[in-house]
Amino acid sequence: TYGCAPMSYLRQMRVRRAQLLLETSDDTLETIAQACGFDSASHLSRVFRAQTGDTPGAWRARRRTGGAPS
Prior knowledge:
Largest sheet: none
Number of helices: 4
């Protein structure tokens, strides 16, 4: 992760935190977005999809059913 711009690194860390919360909690996407420093659930969704190629909801469902990680 070294060698990337500070804002890019911060965004990556926020998405990783969101992934953890999506997998381990039943919190709403809005609550997770706020906990990870995003302005809204839609902002989290856009950034999450850009980084992972998946929506937060699809990622959560797949992780909870034992699907392959992204």
